[in-house]
């Protein structure tokens, strides 16, 4: 029986077949649904079971085959009034691809949306993982319970490893209740420095802010908007909205978006970086100290910018071939959208310090010594 | 508990080791007199003791690196030690080891409220981190019960949780960066004051690695704004199963309380005799705490009470003041002390899927009868992290062994129902040899591969976490 829960014959058969192929010497490009494809195709992965999951709503846990599409999981959870708390983004439209991501791809890229600023990233919601490594071993780690410190945490190591250690076959995830109400506080016309200060102030209040983003004025004449999201039971949201308006009064008057549909669309567009979808240019994703963000943006001079996570995550739209990393003293930047030549020249992932590079190479050497999975990725 | 035989070559080179350590640390930071190293012979799993060869107390990362370099060159195992509060034997020495304590590294290096982070040396206690930021309205969320004494170094090593992690997560969810020294003395920085580290999630695998991968000397931690207030409600039931169902219903309703604590009858009786908290005499008791403004708390408690009333509770006691809150928490907080009054006890730490609660409690009751040892249960019900307390008599021959056998049976039960051996205390030596019950040999091999990369000679915290048999060849490479 899998430590991740009920015996799942479809997943077990898939794992066994895959392990055999790997041992036989096949190389694989792990593409998930293809929304995050970065590497070079060296083979074709087997089709993962896309209908295998085990969901316990009263324990807030879900175990699923990595091949199940994210939107299928979201609709299963929604029926029980739950969701994936880290707000999985769908970057495919922005990347110009027509595909729906899988759970495996989501975890392999540790993809997280606006709520990450308070509730944590995808990796923080991963309770257990099963994978086939480059030695053809079927490995399980973690489990399906909320608290687990049994042995080394390979669940987090696999989350965000972009398939360079092995192919994720199943995952246990913590789920979250869908809040009764979502509202957004809007402050217009702040400079980017003021916006980050306002978001820091909001995130420093006890009012459980679950999203803090800032958008520049757009070409259609809409002013710059600083957006603060609050979620929960209606009674509580109403109270916290007023309290936050008072706390942020020094930054100017604020409006409130009460409409559920409008809130959902707004935060989905931030989550999916929809603003850059039809815009020309390279797209960079940065992780920085929020207070460093405005000066960095001023130095890079991007075509456009989205501040998320209170300024801790920046999405930059730049002229092609701009090397954003040249302006950074701390944090890191991933080149998410660019021509193959630019990706080749600048590298998709940020180079690491020498010791981390050595450790990471060592881990890949253990889990995938012959580089059978996603050769060349993340290096 | 079997430990590997000491390396006699290392034992014979003690004078050389001590003089090299003194040369880099100065006299007072190197403890080598047999009567003085005895202070480091155990942690909070006091049933097992072994004085180390030497103990050192460096003050800086550079000193830690120098110590590790010396030990690496001489082939001396190193056992890292935070505050020595491990309940799993995580800091138990071997007789041929150097204990490296971080107790003198307690500086706060940076407090940054706008970015909500604090950077500390890891010898600082858990509660001191909150102490540093609370006057500005912030706190550090993970709150193990030993938080007054335990060090951040140990919290990172064990990925410590606490009563409030249902809402705020455990250490790994609140750790942004570390400075760490590897077994050969190399210093590495991982992560920082931004939200996600780049590349492979090394931070994720370091947190909870029980001193197997390196010694963390500095940590960047997330701090959170303190809630406006918090209040609990106490609910008594005449049936464990009903109490378990009530917990499920609360969680399904969309409420995320900060804590849901569960006590069973043996534990309620013991705490009543000891602390006189005025708990109802019943089979199962829940303490559920929620946070927010007064009005928000009232609203959430009302929702909880509505759910609880559907399950015919024996008693519902909603706190309306700090005094009433303290009284409700009094019994829970004195539970371990109360059980201690009844005799020696061993505290277990398995986690189970919440839905298995009634069955597991019933089976623990049966096992307790079979072994003839009392067991009280007090635990974090919201996340299924159980703390069965097994009572035994340390002075009675064979009782400790019997207690350990019962403990192992209970932990195997936790795994068999889909849970795990340890939710927050760690494996240490205590659960080392049970690991094969939860993991296959390939699973364990994969975990040991990670140690192979960080600590190729297996010098750090030897003979812990992994079953002795599984790690023998690797340790033989010394």
Description:
Chain A has helices at residues 9-24, 70-79, 92-95, 103-108, 116-119, 122-125, 154-158, 192-203, 234-247, 260-271, 293-300, 340-346, 354-367; strands at 53-56, 61-65, 82-83, 126-133, 138-142, 166-174, 176-177, 181-188, 209-215, 225-232, 254-257, 282-287, 304-308, 313-318, 332-337. Chain A is of the alpha+beta class. Chain A folds into three domains: 9-177, 2-Layer Sandwich (Uridine Diphospho-n-acetylenolpyruvylglucosamine Reductase, domain 3); 181-271, 2-Layer Sandwich (Alpha-Beta Plaits); 274-346, 2-Layer Sandwich (Alpha-Beta Plaits), CATH 3.30.70. In chain A, strands 11-8-10-9-13-14-12-15 form an eight-stranded antiparallel β-sheet, with helices on both faces. In chain A, strands 1-2-6-4-5 form a five-stranded antiparallel β-sheet. In chain A, a hairpin with a 4-residue loop joins strand 13 (304-308) and strand 14. Chain A is globular. By secondary structure, chain B is α+β, with helices and mostly antiparallel strands. In chain B, 37% of the residues lie in helices and 18% in strands. In chain B, strand 17 (375-380) and strand 18 form a beta hairpin. The interface between A and B is large, with 87 and 99 residues.
The number of helical segments of chain A is: 13
What's the gyration radius of chain A in Å?
21 Å
Strand residue percentage of chain B: 15-25%
What is the SS-derived class of chain B? Answer: alpha+beta
CATH fold field value of the largest domain in chain A: Uridine Diphospho-n-acetylenolpyruvylglucosamine Reductase, domain 3
Mean pLDDT score of chain A = 91
The best one-word shape of chain A is: globular
The level 1 CATH classification of the largest domain in chain A is Alpha Beta
What proportion strand of chain A? 15-25%
List the helices and strands and how they pair.
The complex is a heterodimer of chains A (379) and B (478).
Chain A: H1 9-24, E1 53-56, E2 61-65, H2 70-79, E3 82-83, H3 92-95, H4 103-108, H5 116-119, H6 122-125, E4 126-133, E5 138-142, H7 154-158, E6 166-174, E7 176-177, E8 181-188, H8 192-203, E9 209-215, E10 225-232, H9 234-247, E11 254-257, H10 260-271, E12 282-287, H11 293-300, E13 304-308, E14 313-318, E15 332-337, H12 340-346, H13 354-367
Chain B: H1 8-12, H2 14-25, E1 30-31, H3 34-37, E2 54-56, H4 61-74, E3 78-81, E4 98-101, E5 108-112, E6 117-121, H5 126-133, E7 138-139, H6 152-158, H7 165-168, E8 175-181, E9 187-191, H8 202-206, E10 215-222, E11 224-225, E12 230-237, H9 240-252, E13 259-264, H10 265-275, E14 284-291, H11 294-309, E15 315-318, H12 322-333, H13 335-342, E16 344-347, H14 357-371, E17 375-380, E18 388-392, H15 399-416, H16 435-438, H17 441-454, H18 468-475
Parallel strand pairs in B: 2-4, 3-4
Antiparallel strand pairs in B: 1-2, 5-6, 6-10, 7-11, 8-9, 8-10, 12-14, 12-15, 13-14, 13-17, 16-18, 17-18
Helix pairs in contact in B: 2-4, 9-14, 10-13, 14-15
């Amino acid at each position: 029986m899998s430590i991740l829960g009920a015996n799942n014959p479809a997943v077990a058969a898939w794992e066994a077949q895959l392990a055999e192929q790997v041992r036989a010497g096949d190389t694989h490009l792990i593409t998930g649904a293809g929304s995050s494809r970065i590497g070079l195709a060296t083979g074709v992965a087997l089709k993962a079971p896309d209908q295998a999951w085990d969901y316990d709503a009263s324990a807030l846990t879900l175990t699923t085959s990595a091949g199940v599409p994210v939107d299928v999981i979201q609709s299963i959870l929604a029926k029980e009034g739950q969701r994936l708390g880290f707000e999985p983004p769908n970057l495919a439209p922005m990347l110009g691809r027509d595909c729906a991501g899988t759970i495996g791809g989501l975890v392999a890229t540790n993809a997280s949306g606006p709520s990450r600023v308070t509730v944590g990233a995808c990796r923080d919601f991963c309770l257990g993982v099963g994978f086939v490594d480059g030695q053809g071993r079927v490995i399980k780690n973690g489990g399906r319970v909320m608290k687990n410190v049994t042995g080394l945490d390979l669940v987090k190591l696999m989350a965000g490893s972009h398939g360079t250690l092995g192919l994720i076959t199943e995952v246990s995830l913590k789920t979250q209740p869908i809040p009764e109400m979502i509202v957004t506080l809007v402050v217009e016309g702040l400079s980017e420095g003021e916006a980050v200060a306002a978001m820091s102030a909001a995130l420093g209040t006890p009012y459980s802010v679950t999203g803090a983003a800032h958008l520049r004025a757009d070409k259609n004449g809409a002013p710059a908007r600083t957006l603060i999201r609050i979620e929960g039971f209606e009674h509580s949201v109403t109270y916290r909205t007023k309290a936050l308006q008072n706390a942020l009064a020094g930054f100017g008057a604020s409006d409130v978006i009460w409409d559920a549909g409008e809130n959902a669309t707004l935060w989905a567009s931030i989550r999916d970086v929809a603003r850059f979808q039809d815009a020309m240019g390279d797209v960079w994703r940065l992780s920085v100290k929020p207070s460093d963000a405005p000066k960095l943006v001023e130095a890079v001079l991007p075509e456009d910018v989205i501040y998320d996570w209170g300024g801790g995550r920046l999405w930059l739209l730049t002229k092609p071939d701009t090397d954003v990393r040249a302006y950074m003293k701390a944090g890191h930047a991933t080149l998410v959208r660019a021509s193959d030549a630019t990706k080749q020249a600048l590298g998709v992932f940020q180079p690491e310090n020498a010791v981390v590079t050595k450790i990471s190479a060592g881990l890949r050497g253990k889990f995938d010594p012959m580089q059978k999975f996603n050769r060349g990725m993340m290096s | 508990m079997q430990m590997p035989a000491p390396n006699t070559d290392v034992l014979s080179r003690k004078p050389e080791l001590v003089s090299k350590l003194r040369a880099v640390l100065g006299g007072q930071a190197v403890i080598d007199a047999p009567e003085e190293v005895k202070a480091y012979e155990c942690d909070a799993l006091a049933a097992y003791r072994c004085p180390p060869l030497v103990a050192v107390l460096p003050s800086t990362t550079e000193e830690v690196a120098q110590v590790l370099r010396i030990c690496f060159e001489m082939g001396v195992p190193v056992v890292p030690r935070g505050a020595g509060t491990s309940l799993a034997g995580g800091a138990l020495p071997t007789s041929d080891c150097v204990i490296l304590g971080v107790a003198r590294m307690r500086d706060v290096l940076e407090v940054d409220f706008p970015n909500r982070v604090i950077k500390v040396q890891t010898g600082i206690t858990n509660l001191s981190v909150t102490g540093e930021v609370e006057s500005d309205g912030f706190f550090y969320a993970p709150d193990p019960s030993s938080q007054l004494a335990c060090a951040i170094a140990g919290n990172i090593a064990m990925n410590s949780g606490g009563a409030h992690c249902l809402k705020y997560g455990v250490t790994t969810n609140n750790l942004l960066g570390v400075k760490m020294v590897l077994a050969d003395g190399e210093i590495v920085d991982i992560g920082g004051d931004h939200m996600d580290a780049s590349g492979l999630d090394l931070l994720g695998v370091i947190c909870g690695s029980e001193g197997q991968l390196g010694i963390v000397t500095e940590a960047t931690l997330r701090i959170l704004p303190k809630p406006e207030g918090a209040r609990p409600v106490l609910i008594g039931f005449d049936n464990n199963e009903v109490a378990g169902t009530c917990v499920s219903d609360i969680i399904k309703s969309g409420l995320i309380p900060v804590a849901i604590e569960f006590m069973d009858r043996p534990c309620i009786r013991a705490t009543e005799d000891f602390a006189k908290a005025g708990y109802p005499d019943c089979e199962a008791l829940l303490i559920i705490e929620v946070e927010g403004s007064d009005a928000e708390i009232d609203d959430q408690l009302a929702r909880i009470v509505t759910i609880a009333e559907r399950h015919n509770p024996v008693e519902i006691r909603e706190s309306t003041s700090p005094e009433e809150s303290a009284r409700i928490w009094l019994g829970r907080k004195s539970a371990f002390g109360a059980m201690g009054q009844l005799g020696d006890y061993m505290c277990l730490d398995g986690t189970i899927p919440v839905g298995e609660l009634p069955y597991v409690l019933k089976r623990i009751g049966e096992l307790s009868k079979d072994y003839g040892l009392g067991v009280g249960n007090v635990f974090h019900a919201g996340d299924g992290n159980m703390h069965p307390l097994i009572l035994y008599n340390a002075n009675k021959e064979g009782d400790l062994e019997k207690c350990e056998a019962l403990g192992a049976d209970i932990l195997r039960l936790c795994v068999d129902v889909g849970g795990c051996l340890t939710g927050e205390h760690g494996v240490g030596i205590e659960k080392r040899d049970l690991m094969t019950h939860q993991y296959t040999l390939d699973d364990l091999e994969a975990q040991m591969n990670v140690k192979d990369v960080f600590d190729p000679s297996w010098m750090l915290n030897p003979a812990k976490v992994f079953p002795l048999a599984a790690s023998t060849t690797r340790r033989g490479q010394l």
